[in-house]
Amino acid sequence: MLDFDFEKLCSVSLSHLNVYACLVCGKYFQGRGTSTHAYTHSVSEGHHVFLNLETHRFYCLPDDYEIIDGSLEDITYLLSPTFTSSEISSLDTNNRMVRAYNGLTYYQGVVGLNNIKANDYCNVILQMLAHVSPLRDYFLNAVNYRGMSTTSSDQMHLLVQRFGELIRKLWNPRNFKTHVSPHEFLQAVVLCSRKRFQFTEQGDAVEFLSWLLNALDLALHRKRSSIKPGPKATSERTVVSHALRGTMRVHSRKIMPVNMSEEEKATLVDNPEYMPSTVETKFFYLTCDLPPPPLYLDEYKESIIPQVSLSTLLAKFNGTTEKEYKTHRDSVMRRFELRRLPPYLILYMKRIVKNIFTLEKNPTIVNFPIKSIDFGELLDPECRAHHKYTTYDLVANIVHDGPPTPGSGTHRIHLLHRGTNKWFELQDLHVTEVLPQMIPLSETLIQVWAVNKSILNPAYSPSTPAVAGETQVDETKANGGQESTEVQEQT
Length: 491
Fold this sequence. Notes:
Layout: E1 19-22, E2 28-30, H1 37-45, E3 49-52, E4 58-60, E5 65-67, H2 73-79, H3 85-89, E6 98-99, E7 105-106, E8 112-113, H4 120-129, H5 133-140, H6 156-170, E9 179-180, H7 183-192, H8 205-227, H9 231-235, H10 239-244, E10 246-254, H11 262-268, E11 277-283, E12 286-289, E13 307-309, H12 310-314, E14 323-326, E15 331-340, E16 344-350, E17 352-354, E18 359-361, E19 365-367, E20 373-374, H13 381-386, E21 391-401, E22 410-417, E23 422-427, E24 430-434, E25 444-451, H14 486-490
Parallel strand pairs: 8-9, 12-16, 13-19
Antiparallel strand pairs: 1-2, 1-3, 3-4, 4-5, 6-7, 10-11, 10-15, 14-15, 16-25, 17-18, 20-21, 21-22, 21-25, 22-23, 23-24
Helix pairs in contact: 4-8, 6-7, 6-8
Domain USP: 111-452
Domain UBP-type: 1-86
Region (Disordered): 463-491
């Protein structure tokens, strides 16, 4: 069966230029002339029909003439799926199953991703982002990112192109099989991250998520600036920022050392270093701190699995709860005040912690409802009045199973298919339907909550002044450097 999921390079010369796919055996070869590998293959093996992977044209070799036949359109669509505006707008309401060429049925967008070796941490992030509707709708239309710069000095365009191709294949209603391989996209990830993220060894899912969002946001900013140069193009938000980025204030005050005398503390009162400070910053996700697990066994000499409610974890961001953050030099008290909620809110449960010697995993179970969480309760009255909708529903839930040591744990994801309102569990190639009641019983790592526009915020007041806007993302966050925003490091 034909498979266009792998990197498009010649199987003999490993060149990316002028590559053709043999429609008989599925192998890739370079060129079409008499001295090329494709020509040699057609003569030696008797395979005569080839597809140009760039122009999507069919040729007969060695006679070298173009084949124009409507029956080959399915192959062209498999190579590069396309979607009309009406098809994109109906994805969240479509409840019909489609049949793949191999006879299996599946729902659009609910297909497995191949685990090449140890890239399950990437697969769950890709499945999650593929169900963020604004992001999905943008990348399903290839026209939105077709005109990106392809200079050799800027490799981020390759990441955007490959990400868009993968999203289109995940939502392809005419797939030949019920799974997709992310190999081509992961090759771009290895290149653009300077080998920080590999698909041959296990990695951190939240680090990959943060890097990918910043990299896509930066690349789309560059594309917009090249098309519409000027300060307005620079200040405009991309689809990534518009869908996933929120705003918060971080209030900090440095704690004086306990071994100081009262006289020394009095001299430091007016020191700017010890005065309270407030910073307004942006975030792509909120880090929720899990309570430490109990040290002792229960009466049956078994480990106690603690439980905590999601509302307890979210109290960290209500603007009044203070928490001490220690460094090797001093301690700082911080409290976090949400100012703007994004349409899609990502929560990260800080379950895996690195201590001096090794990685430790917190087994605490987080209890949460699947629908209708009012995040407006975390906002002050002024900010809440500015939000028309503050009620959110869960759309994706990433789970980490097993020990935290590298190469030992695995990732899986729960996804909501909105057309049928059914929940599915995806672990690499395996796709199974699950009951929504089973989702909170797992060791949640990352969640995505979507705003529910059917429930109006009762405190909404259109006359309230808008909260602070967005700013540009630091370019170093997408070039193999520290990808986390300031809030992500602080929280």
